[in-house]
Amino acid sequence: MKITWIIFCVFALTGACAHAQAWKPEKNMEILIGLSAGSSQDRTGRMLQKIWQDAKLTPMSVNVVNRPSAGGQMALDVLAARAGDAHTMYVVSPTFLTSYINGLSTYQYTDFTPLALLGKQYLAVAVRPESAVKSGRDLMERLKRDPYTFSMGINGAGGTLHIVAGMMVRAAGGEPKKARITAFNGGELMTAGIGGHVDAIVTVASNIQPHVESGKLTMLAVSAPKRLSGILASVPTFKEQGVDLILQNWAGLFGPKGLTRPQVAYWDGVIAASVVTPTWKAFVESTQSELDYLDSAAFRKYLQAEDKRLRAALVDLGMAK
User: Fold this and answer.
1) H/E element holding 314?
2) Contact 293, 303 (CB under 8 A)
3) 75 and 139 both lie in a single domain
4) Same domain, 255 and 223
5) In Å, how far from its chain's centre is CA 123?
6) Per the count of CB atoms within 10 A, which of 124, 215, 228, 255 is most buried?
7) Banded pLDDT at 2 (limits 50, 70, 90)
8) Containing domain of residue 67, as a range?
9) How far is CA 235 from the centre of its chain?
10) Where are the beta strands (DSSP E) in 171-319?
11) What tens digit of pLDDT does each residue of 115-173 get?
12) Please, are residues 124 and 202 in contact by the beta-carbon 8 Å criterion?
């Protein structure tokens, strides 16, 4: 009887302690975006804002704040200054890792608290319809003949788009650091691709989709493990065309450094509830994304492996600092 009473007391005290340690937001929250409005990170942040407020998953208001700069430095400065404050989050992509590796940012993932992997988007290479290159196989043959005269456009040097372009050159037997890869800003990339200022462009598949539908661009290959859906279902993967190339842009969420276990547990619960809503699922489908949710602990492990993989690719491009 005495032992039973002791066990009861331990459970009661444990429950009381857990209740006492529970955390929830006490003031308005900010989702920081390191890019301008309309970017994929911005759309992700605003979709989270909508779901949290519409479904009342959080008790306080949520504001999306854009602080565009190279490598997201301005937004990361704000996040770094708010250590321990679980009311501030930052939407990240692989650029968060590559910007540190190539020296554009002073912050690395260990400087903050990983909260969740939200999903993945795959990348694609496209050309003008009148191009002599009609398929991914044609492209690889062209690169094998001369990997250094075929020009490719990307958004932002040193990111995943640059890595995909470099991987194609490497697969063709060339040196990625010698390839004609030009980095553009924002909408300049599409203008360059449609206008023929470069031979091909590499970007997120969903960004090219409207121009495929209008007939202004032809998509040659996607960096996915299997074909995408909808109008892009006719586009073969790199792997189907003999190139062992699978790479994705992922979206994730970080908090400031020093968050407590109850704070992380709170956001684990909210984000897990968010990604199963019809609104989020529709958003994932509309952006040709793949729902691949990981909680804070699993996302931290994912980042360790991803950091090594991206670092090796940037070393190959000659862009690692």
Assistant:
1) helix 296-317
2) no
3) no
4) no
5) 11
6) 124
7) very low
8) 28-121+249-317
9) 22
10) 180-184, 200-204, 218-222, 248-255, 289-294
11) 999 999 999 999 999 999 999 999 999 999 999 999 999 987 888 999 999 999 999 99
12) yes
